[in-house]
Amino acid sequence: MTDQVEVKPEGAQSNTQTPEGVQVGIQRVYTKDVSFEAPNSPEVFQDANFKPEVKMEMNSKSRKIADDFYEVVLTITLTAASGETTGFLVEVQQAGLFGVRGLNDGQLRHLLSTFCPESLYPYAREVISSLITKGGFPPVYLAPVNFDALFRQQMEQQAQQQGAGQPEGEKAE
Predict the structure, then answer these.
(1) Measured between alpha carbons, how far is 33 from 44 in angstroms, rounded to an integer?
(2) pLDDT tens-digit profile of 89-133?
(3) Which domains does the chain have, with CATH numbers?
(4) How many angstroms separate the CA atoms of 100 and 26, rounded?
(5) From CA 86, how far away is CA 138, in angstroms rounded?
(6) What is this structure's pTM?
């Protein structure tokens, strides 16, 4: 079954509903927290051997704010280091307030774990890129992320963990 989702920009007024009665609206997008550290500046700029490896960590969380309103926070942390020398560390919490109606619990979990972080990701990428270049470092371009694939992978891992906890002869449902 394919769910239809109506996405309304902030301030848009619409009483239109999909046949299933599902409504999703992005109410607000905002930066919740930002941190940039360049602990070895300016020495790192003079080190010809500094060839950093950039590592990215990413997670998202959501919480119910009120009936039909959820805050989703996408946290991205990038660290550029070469050996023991850190060039920079940047962390951004990009958040959004989403209005959601007409979804069951499974559909809501999927939406909050895929569509919402995917909507926030371009904003987080822009903030990260800006911070890094303002810190004096070459730009870092973050690749697109398939949040749907990440969600499926997480669901598979949870299913495997639940299945591994079952006594022999019993089947996980």
Answers:
(1) 26
(2) 999 999 999 999 999 999 999 999 999 999 999 999 999 999 999
(3) 7-164 (3.10.420.10)
(4) 9
(5) 15
(6) 0.79
Token reading at 64: 């119910």
Compute the residue count for the chain.
173
Look up tokens 């591994």; give the residue: 164
Residue with tokens 């022999």: 168
Q: What is the 3-state secondary structure (H, E, C) of the chain?
A: CCCCCCEECCCCCCCCCCCCCCEEEEEEEEEEEEEEECCCCCHHHHCCCCCCEEEEEEEEEEEEEECCEEEEEEEEEEEEEECCEEEEEEEEEEEEEEEEECCCHHHHHHHHHCHHHHHHHHHHHHHHHHHHHHCCCCCCCCCCCCHHHHHHHHHHHHHHHHHHCCCCCCCCC
As a dihedral over the C-alpha atoms of residue 152, residue 160, residue 108, residue 9, rounded to 10 degrees, the angle is: -30
Token digits of residue 2: 């394919």
Which residue bears the tokens 């607000």?
A: 28
